[in-house]
Amino acid sequence: MLTDEVGKGATSASRPAYSADNPLRSGGSLIQLITPRGERISHPEFDVWVKDVSDEQLGSLYEDMTVIRRIDAEATALQRQGELALWPPLLGQEASQIGSSRALREDDFVFPSYRESGVAYVRGAELAEIAKVWRGNASYGWDPQRIKLATPQIIIGSQSLHATGYAMGIQHDGADSVVMAYFGDGATSEGDVSEAMVFAASFQAPVVFFCQNNHWAISEPVRLQSHVQIADRPNGFGIPSMRVDGNDVLAVLAATRVALDRARKGGGPTFIEAVTYRMGPHTTADDPTRYRDPNELEDWAAKDPIARLKALLDSKGLLTEQLEAKVQAKADAVAAEFRAGCIDMPDPAPLDVFNHVYSTPNSWIERQKDHYSRYLESFSGSAEEGAL
């Protein structure tokens, strides 16, 4: 896992400036650098943004994608075994999450939805912290300031407003860090996302709206909610957009770097539509076989993001037994640590539910806490110890 930029040695000075009127970068054409069969294809406009990615770094991208798929599988198993209350799978979206998050700087701030466990891994969240919310032990998992990652947002699209506000604060402070807001295709039909784009465009805030178009908003297909490409929607707000193959980790990395560089230079917001696919259910409470054609799943399985990077590594002679063993060992170790951290997680004290509801003391909350404490004590146990 790397939390800084892939190939930091390259500078933006050697890269072409972003041009909002370039049709390749205003929706439309799909940006792709690796085909589903693992063939590296040339795209002069974007090749320059990943020319610093070494063979070793390709291997590390492969490792990260493999590891987060293993975390996802382990979390799904833990939910089925009753150890997690719920889990939102990311199966199939590994390239979108790893490619975009590996482009970020340490001081950039991220506002995720509930599915970005891969982003949390890259940003440095401890494995037990990723599981905490889904086990029901806390309303948040990690300290947002420590890893510059806000807590997962369940309310669809609301994090886009938080991201824009934070970006406006960065702008006010005169810093060159950037904010990234993650959401799915369904969120683009929410008013919060539209309002966020209005403010971001009006104030030219340094924010990147990263939409993982996984083709399904729970049980509704993307074609039902949008009769145009998702990347066309932000153009009406005056925000340039890019449409990238979300199963191509190099293309995602390149597009994200373009957007981040543009924001750092005062160019304002950019919208990225990463065209990917949700291979699993919306959450572990969902049954996609009730609404999804199995042939569609089969078609997208042929575009698997990990398989295509693996094929590229193999074609370059980089898929050695040593690399495979290293990646497998890392995935096994992470899965074991994730499982242990989940199962061994201590239960919170009953009164912890009142913590962090407000940032300052609140009499209404304190009154509820007092009433609940006395209720627990009526069972002749300690409220803090949780004895009932």
Automatic annotation (TrEMBL):
Ranges for region Disordered: 1-21
InterPro entries tied to this protein: Alpha-ketoacid_DH_E1_comp, DH_E1, PdhA/BkdA, THDP-binding
GO terms for biological process, alphabetical: branched-chain amino acid catabolic process
Residue ranges the record marks as coiled coil: none
Signal peptide interval: none
Example of a GO MF term: oxidoreductase activity, acting on the aldehyde or oxo group of donors, disulfide as acceptor
Protein's name according to its UniProt entry: Pyruvate dehydrogenase (Acetyl-transferring) E1 component subunit alpha
